[in-house]
UniProtKB/TrEMBL annotation:
Sulphite efflux pump required for the secretion of sulphite as a reducing agent. In the presence of sulphite, cystine in keratin is directly cleaved to cysteine and S-sulphocysteine, and thereby, reduced proteins become accessible to hydrolysis by a variety of secreted endo- and exoproteases. Excretion of sulphite mediated by an efflux pump also represents a detoxification pathway for dermatophytes during infection of the epidermal stratum corneum, hair and nails, which are rich in cysteine. The chain crosses the membrane at residues 19-44, 65-89, 95-120, 132-155, 161-187, 199-219, 239-264. The lineage of its organism: Eukaryota, Fungi, Dikarya, Ascomycota, Pezizomycotina. This is Sulfite efflux pump SSU1. Its main location: membrane. It is found in: Cell membrane. It is a multi-pass membrane protein. Pfam families: SLAC1 (PF03595). Signal peptide: none annotated. Keywords: Cell membrane, Membrane, Transmembrane, Transmembrane helix, Transport. Belongs to the tellurite-resistance/dicarboxylate transporter (TDT) family. PANTHER family: PTHR31686, SULFITE EFFLUX PUMP SSU1. One of its GO terms (cellular component) is plasma membrane.
Length: 420
């Protein structure tokens, strides 16, 4: 998600140049590589250990990250339309449409099923444990809506483009109101139980995601409707311009509401002064990135230099600055690993399931990891049947997993990916 939004911003920056275009292409290629690698690792993990999948899907936090799959894939679709479609010709337009259809279907399934599983889960969820991560599966519909507007602009068939725009409006209507309801719950949680711990304080930036992406989506859909509605004789002759005007008004309102949450987020970070670097710092990049895309679209609609400058500043200070701080922090604290352990599942102690060459290969890479890099893992939260490990650094120690909070243990790469 973060790598994808950086490539999109570099490609659509108001003050652009050929060198920025080629940098965006390189980042786009890196994004595809990272996405494919993550998919292969996840597929191996849940194929070799199906018990982990069922434990993950019932987890009130870990399950929410399934929403990152369609959002990450949507950034690839957007850049495919920006870069590959102009270069590869007509056949790539239908390919982009097919990828978007898959992403839209997956987004709807994610946005509807995961909140219901959270409601139907047997154990009671405390308001104090609620985080902005609940927004992740819901925002996937809003991201798919914005991708639909981009795909509709490159489709050769006006009727197909019309269907894409209509479905994208439906996706936007599913995602944004539901995200606003979750944000109300999150505001209540912050008001009653105060700010999150320093280890997850970055999550206060996540509400910028649905607001920034929602504003960008409705403006892009309005522009697509203004072009496509007259071509297909949809509604009245001037209905496209009405959709475009309403889209701009809604986008400006959502962008303005995003300024409120941006203030809350910056004030929360300033109040903490210092907070530990962990893998959750990804929460800086994508929310600020989509808020920057909304700012950029406002600048295009108004032909305003002010919004163009704001968009450039948002890119430099939010995305590039956040990434620079991340690498500086990493050089100070060493490697970071995030692993989630889901209780003691039967059949996981003997190593991964599968053919012999898979087992031998995993054990081989695990042995190399043990020789080259060692980690000490800090458990930050414990549950009755499962617990999560959020930070890892330092020196490899005992392999015994402590059942209580504030206990330290260790894991190798093999155990990070597959054990429990």
């Amino acid at each position: 998600m973060g790598t994808g939004i950086v490539s999109i911003l570099l490609n659509t920056l108001p003050y652009n140049g050929p060198w920025l275009y080629w940098i965006s292409v390189v980042v786009f290629g890196l994004n595809i590589l990272l996405f494919a690698t993550g998919c292969i690792i996840s597929l191996l993990r849940y194929t070799l250990y199906p018990e982990i999948f069922f434990a993950m899907i019932k987890h009130p936090v870990q399950s929410m990250f399934i929403g990152t799959f369609p959002m990450g894939f949507a950034t690839i679709i957007n850049m495919f339309c920006f870069v590959c479609v102009p270069a590869w010709g007509e056949w790539s337009r239908n390919l982009a449409w097919g990828m978007w259809i898959f992403d839209a279907v997956f987004s709807v399934i994610t946005a509807l099923s995961l909140p219901f599983l959270l409601m139907a889960h047997g154990s009671e969820t405390q308001l104090s444990s609620m985080t902005a991560v609940w927004l992740l599966p819901i925002v996937s519909c809003i991201v798919a809506a914005s991708s639909g507007a981009i795909v509709a602009d490159v489709l050769p068939n006006p009727q197909h483009a019309l269907w894409t725009v209509i479905v994208s409006y439906i996706l936007w209507g599913i995602g944004l109101p539901l995200a606003l309801m979750v944000m109300v719950i999150y505001l209540q949680r912050l008001t009653l139980h105060k700010l999150p711990p320093k280890a997850v304080i970055v999550s206060v930036f996540l509400p910028l995601g649905p607001l920034g992406q929602g504003g960008y989506s409705i403006m892009k859909l309005g522009g697509a409707a203004q072009t496509i509605f007259p071509q297909t004789q949809t509604l009245e002759s001037g209905s496209g311009a009405v959709f475009h005007t309403i889209g701009f008004m809604a986008g400006l309102i959502l962008w303005s509401f995003g300024l409120v949450w941006l203030f809350f987020a910056i004030a929360s970070i300033a109040r903490c002064r210092s907070f530990p670097f962990n893998i959750g710092w990804w929460g800086f990049t994508f929310p600020l990135g989509v808020f920057a895309t909304c700012t950029c679209q406002l600048g295009k609609e108004l032909a305003s230099e002010v919004f163009r400058v704001l968009d450039t500043l948002a890119l430099c200070s939010g995305v590039v600055g956040g990434g620079g701080r991340r690498y500086i922090a990493r050089s100070r604290v060493g490697p970071i690993v995030l692993c989630a352990l889901f209780g003691r599942l039967e059949g996981t102690r003997g190593g991964p399931r599968g053919s012999g060459w898979i087992k031998k290969g995993l054990r081989f890479f695990s042995s190399i990891w043990r020789r080259t890099t060692r980690y000490e893992v800090l458990q930050t939260k414990s549950f009755r049947d499962s617990y999560s490990i959020h930070m890892a650094k330092g020196v490899f120690g005992s392999k015994e997993w402590g059942p209580r909070d504030a206990r330290t243990s260790s894991c190798s790469l093999y155990e990070v990916l597959f054990v429990e």
